[in-house]
Write a structure and sequence with these properties.
Elements lengths: L1 H33 L2 H14 L1 H6 L2 H13 L5 H38 L8 H26 L3 H24 L5 H29 L9 H36 L2 H26 L2 H7 L3 H31 L11 H24 L8 H21 L2 H32 L1
Length: about 425
């Protein structure tokens, strides 16, 4: 039954991701027809600046999610219930602080950044409202974390699917009705409101069941000390992954001609979307892994199946991309070709296991592979930067060899870690 539940969650997560992938080009098409070039630039600036939340959070949400799930499946004991109650309060407090920091950094830095350009667009009010909505959406995150931790993953994925679909429809309609930059604010507000209402209804029932009645600020310091080192390791993994996918394109932009940079960055973005879908499939199973951690053998079997499915899906997606390129479809005419494209695909394929295994390891309350992810990410960034500087493909091929070397070390480390857990269980 747990396997069927996991498959259902993975299916809904895939559909939710598919909605985002399909709706992206449609929204861009509508934007290009209805927005002026200045409005279009501001649109992308809004969301680029909003990405600072990922840097501020830096994986702490996943740490708290797994810690909550760990104590939730042990709440039949007095100690487990007290721990769970404390971490629920800490999660709300943590994201309240995070949302406040996020709002001020986003608003003041973003305002200064946008004002540095001469733009004949009324952006100030939409920008302020966008920052307010971003602040409120950050406050919703704890609700999503709790739903996931309380083994309500299928409900959560359905709510997120409905929210994503609503956002796309409302955004397209408001753009067509000439709401301009206010379209972003309206669509974000409605989609987040729907997500909040669904989540709070489901969560309220769950909180009443486990009878969480501790004061809001109880044991906050103790909880922070409990997860401090864990959050730091998750931060290291997150920054490493963030650097791999975001600093390499910046390096390409800095060192190479504009035409090459444009092709590389478009190709990299497409490869990243394939990787993102596999990561979503794996992350949708994280609290399932945590629940199964009481029976480690079943947990590792489950992860092995998901890992194989993710890798096969990634390989299939990249193969389909190459096939489309072979027939020279105009949609991908602006991407890289030839041997360099194959090198990039192999780099992404060999990089994926680092992230999948690292995400899985957290279900055992450990960030055992953060340094492996760091070494792989930074090595690729350095090698790619050197390759861009000298404009030589030989360096990019070398990155595959380096990834395989680190992957070999990590795989042996993973087997030792797995065997140690199975022996002691």
């Amino acid at each position: 039954m747990l396997t069927n539940k996991g498959n259902l969650i993975a299916g809904i997560a895939f559909c939710s991701t598919l909605v985002r992938v399909i709706s992206g080009p449609i929204v861009l098409l509508v934007l290009s027809n209805k927005f002026s070039s200045e409005e279009l630039s501001i649109y992308f600036v809004f969301f680029s600046l909003a990405a600072v939340r990922q840097l501020i959070e830096s994986g702490a949400g996943s740490v708290l999610k797994q810690r909550l799930a760990y104590y939730y499946i042990r709440n039949n004991t007095k100690l487990g219930l007290v721990k769970l109650s404390s971490f629920v309060n800490f999660t709300f407090f943590y994201f309240l602080v995070l949302a406040t920091m996020y709002f001020f950094i986003l608003f003041f830095f973003g305002t200064h950044f946008i004002q540095s350009k001469e733009i004949n667009v009324d952006w100030k009010i939409p920008w302020f409202l966008f920052c307010i909505i971003s602040f409120l959406s950050t406050l919703i995150v704890p609700l999503l974390i709790l739903l996931d931790s309380f083994q309500k993953q299928e409900k959560l994925q359905k709510f997120q699917l409905i929210s994503s679909f609503t956002y796309t429809i409302v955004l397209i309609v408001t753009i067509l009705l000439d709401f301009g930059l206010y379209s972003i604010v309206i669509s974000l507000f409605i989609s987040n409101l729907i997500l909040f209402l669904f989540s709070i209804k489901e969560l309220w029932c769950q909180i009443r069941i486990i009878k969480i009645r501790k004061s809001f600020f109880s044991n906050t310091k103790k909880c922070f000390l409990d997860v401090k080192s864990f959050i730091f390791k998750a931060f290291l993994s997150f920054i490493s992954i963030f650097s791999f996918w975001n600093l390499i394109p910046l390096s390409c932009f800095y060192f190479t001609p504009t035409e090459f940079s444009a092709k590389f960055n478009l190709t990299w973005a497409l490869l990243k979307s394939g990787f993102y879908m596999t990561q979503v499939l794996n992350l949708s199973q994280v609290t399932i892994y945590t629940k199964l951690s009481l029976e480690p053998k079943k947990c590792f079997v489950r992860f092995s199946k998901v890992f194989i499915a993710c890798m096969l899906f990634l390989i299939f997606g990249y193969t389909a991309f190459i096939t489309v390129k072979f027939f020279d479809v105009s949609l991908f005419s602006g991407t890289m070709t030839g041997e360099f494209l194959y090198v990039l695909i192999l780099v992404c394929i060999f990089y994926s296991p680092f992230v999948l295994i690292s995400d899985f390891s957290r279900c055992f309350n450990n960030e055992f592979f953060s340094h492996d992810v760091f070494h792989a990410s930074i090595s690729c960034f350095v090698i790619f930067s050197i390759g861009f500087y000298f404009q030589s493909n030989d360096y990019f091929v070398f990155s595959i060899a380096v990834l395989l070397f680190f992957l070999f070390l990590m795989w042996n480390k993973y087997k030792r870690w797995r065997n140690a857990i199975l022996i002691t269980s």
